TrEMBL record:
One of its GO terms (molecular function) is DNA binding. This is Transcription factor mitochondrial. One of its GO terms (cellular component) is nucleus. InterPro entries: HMG_box_dom, HMG_box_dom_sf, HMGB. Residues 1-65 form the HMG box domain. It comes from Labeo rohita (Indian major carp). The lineage of its organism: Eukaryota, Metazoa, Chordata, Craniata, Vertebrata. Residues 1-65 bind DNA. Signal peptide: none annotated. SUPFAM superfamilies: HMG-box (SSF47095). It comes from the Eukaryota. GO terms for biological process: regulation of transcription by RNA polymerase II. Keywords: DNA-binding, Nucleus. Pfam families: HMG_box.
Length: 156
C-alpha cells in the first residue's frame, strides 16, 4: 500500500467514530485534505510502513515465483501478454472511434432481427430472440442472401 493508503486505513476508523453519520466518501475526502496538510515529518511513519509493506510484498513475490514450475511461469507470461494486448486493442479501438471511424455494415442476421423483432413470438426479450434465431436458422442460404439483398437495397 502507498503511504497515503496506509494513512487512510489507519485514520478512517477513528475519524468515522468521531463523526458518526458522515458518508464514507466525505470521510475519505476529509482525510485526503488532512493528508495534504501533513508535513514531511508527519508523513514519514506512513511512508516507512509503505516501504516495509512493499519490501514484504517483493519477498513474497520472489518466494511465489521460486516455487512455480517453468510451465506455470510461461503460462503466467502468456496470460500477461494477452492482457496487455487486450488493453492495447481497447485503447486502439477507442482512439479510432474518437477519430470518427465508420461502423461496419450490419449483417443480414442483424437486419433481420431488428426488422422482425416486434412480430416475433414470445413475451420477453429472451424468448423473442430465440424465436427469431430459430426462424433465421430455418432459412436456406439462398433465402438468406435474397433477404440480405432486399433489406440492404442491393440488386442481385
Amino acid at each position: 500500500m502507498t503511504a497515503y493508503m496506509t494513512y487512510v486505513k489507519e485514520m478512517h476508523p477513528t475519524f468515522s467514530r468521531q463523526n458518526p453519520g458522515v458518508k464514507n466518501v466525505d470521510i475519505v475526502r476529509k482525510l485526503a485534505q488532512q493528508w495534504k496538510m501533513l508535513t514531511a515529518e508527519q508523513k514519514q511513519p506512513f511512508q516507512a510502513a509503505s516501504s516495509a509493506s512493499r519490501e514484504q510484498y517483493k519477498l513474497a513475490l520472489e518466494k511465489y515465483k521460486a516455487q512455480l514450475t517453468p510451465a506455470q511461469t510461461e503460462a503466467l507470461a502468456v496470460e500477461k501478454r494477452q492482457k496487455v494486448a487486450k488493453r492495447k486493442a481497447i485503447r486502439r479501438k477507442k482512439e479510432l472511434n474518437s477519430l470518427g471511424k465508420p461502423k461496419r455494415p450490419r449483417s443480414a442476421f442483424n437486419i433481420f432481427m431488428s426488422e422482425h423483432f416486434d412480430e416475433a413470438k414470445g413475451n420477453n426479450m429472451q424468448t423473442k430472440m430465440k424465436s427469431l434465431r430459430d426462424d433465421w436458422e430455418r432459412f436456406s442460404a439462398t433465402q438468406k442472401q435474397l433477404l440480405k439483398n432486399f433489406l440492404t437495397g442491393y440488386e442481385m
